[in-house]
Amino acid sequence: xxxxxxxxxxxxxxxxxxxxxxxxxxxxxxxxxxxxxxxxxxxxxxxxxxxxxxxxxxxxxxxxxxxxxxxxxxxxxxxxxxxxxxxxxxxxxxxxxxxxxxxxxxxxxxxxxxxxxxxxxxxxxxxxxxxxxxxxxxxxxxxxxxxxxxxxxxxxxxxxxxxxxxxxxxxxxxxxxxxxxxxxxxxxxxxxxxxxxxxxxxxxxxxxxxxxxxxxxxxxxxxxxxxxxxxxxxxxxxxxxxxxxxxxxxxxxxxxxxxxxxxxxxxxxxxxxxxxxxxxxxxxxxxxxxxxxxxxxxxxxxxxxxxxxxxxxxxxxxxxxxxxxxxxxxxxxxxxxxxxxxxxxxxxxxxxxxxxxxxxxxxxxxxxxxxxxxxxxxxxxxxxxxxxxxxxxxxxxxxxxxxxxx
Amino acid sequence: xxxxxxxxxxxxxxxxxxxxxxxxxxxxxxxxxxxxxxxxxxxxxxxxxxxxxxxxxxxxxxxxxxxxxxxxxxxxxxxxxxxxxxxxxxxxxxxxxxxxxxxxxxxxxxxxxxxxxxxxxxxxxxxxxxxxxxxxxxxx
Lengths: 406, 140
Ligand SMILES: Cc1ncc(COP(=O)(O)O)c(C=O)c1O
Hints:
- The structure holds two protein chains of two kinds.
- By secondary structure, chain A is of the alpha/beta class.
- Chain A has 14 helices and 17 strands.
- In chain A, strand 1 (19-20) and strand 2 (23-24) form a beta hairpin.
- In chain A, helix 3 crosses helix 10 (280-295) and helix 11 (298-316) runs parallel beside helix 14.
- Chain A is globular.
- The N and C termini of chain A lie far apart (47 Å).
- The mean pLDDT of chain A is 96.
- Chain B is mainly alpha-helical.
- Chain B has a single domain, classed as Sufe protein. Chain: A.
- Chain B has helices at residues 5-17, 22-33, 77-90, 95-100, 105-108, 123-139, and strands at 57-64, 67-74.
- In chain B, helix 1 (5-17) crosses helix 3.
- The longest helix of chain B has 17 residues, at 123-139.
- Chain B is globular.
- The mean pLDDT of chain B is 91.
- The complex binds pyridoxal-5'-phosphate (PLP).
- Residues 94-96, 123, 125-126, 171, 175, 200, 202-203, 223, 364 of chain A line the site of pyridoxal-5'-phosphate.
């Protein structure tokens, strides 16, 4: 099926029509957050205009409707990632909360000397919660090194795995380098030593088709706002048997079965991990974002992104003194670069003045910057609604910026 | 008698009014950065580094008679341009005038976006540092 039409897709995203500093917006900061299609925006607006009510609580019509819409969103997302059961999908406020939840809940059962394995290209969200756990429990944090080309040192990975490794918490696609890590293979290796695996899919859920059962990851987390949904909502997926074993992360309303001052029993999945009134509109909006992806030729969209990513890299190689930070054989449409000794901030500012949104800085991966011995990069991160023409304009604007700074 | 803070601000506003678009303004800003009175290398110490900037900015000050002189540097050219404007206005003024100054030129030349607290170049941090150095002299 080859029905992907770039112009039609763009028409779904109203913000792409914005004019910035007198120039049509070219949005190349999709790694930070994606734009939202009209259906998502309308869905949220409709929820607040006509459906707003608390979930899982009232007997009245609106509450029942809101609960159904909220649970439908869960089922849609569960089906999209091929979860076996909808209860395996927990609403969080984002990737960060999902990782913190596992660091707490799984962390409770860990002993001093147990090891957590992460990689040198993790986002701070997949570093700091583990450091906090190590402080609390005396567990040890081990780090898979990153090679010069921006891939993981897989030999080192294999030798770091041992029977003390309790968890591999690994980034699927690097937000800074665009590298796609061979997570299916890594998950298998980690399971072979009895470790569980948490997959940080914040940068893969919007670019790759993901099947949690085929991958066999034990947990997976991502943020709604990076996958065409609203901010303040995200997903923690966990295998049912494992989630059932874990203690809850927060206590409060909705997550309980009975409460007495002597003893409280917890609710079943997924509510056990959803204490308090959740972000209902966010969840419903996120469900709509996944329905939107189901409604388009997603395979065509992924293919288009791949071509855009390749075209970006090809055009960027023409630029004198360009340096790609990481140049892995398998990448998503994200590219970090530097030009000569120009400061990323200067390049980013001048691109902004030409209507182009890129991100500059360390991208919440300071250890990775230290690994490459650089203070930061300029990062262009594309989505399927970007175009080749935008890449051409970007190259033109970048060339002009470089000339001004040289 | 050197020009007052407001005279210099008005001068800058007039210079920037000649530019039609953003790129011209920034071209000029980059040029101004090249005229920045540079801080001596050995003065680029941690305590002279302004935090909260994506680029690094160092500022040093010293009294000369009744007036405070500033030197600075940054590893980013635009940041250098911005700090050079601040220094052109505030250097060689009395600490009292520096502390009291109202830097209205920022809005008038369209740099107010750099004032947002999350803005990566930390113009707010630079202004606070210059004024603080003035305050320290007053407290003596
Ligand atoms: C790979 C990765 N992990 C984690 C995060 C954190 O996501 P959030 O800030 O939405 O919780 C991000 C987003 O910047 C990311 O790119």
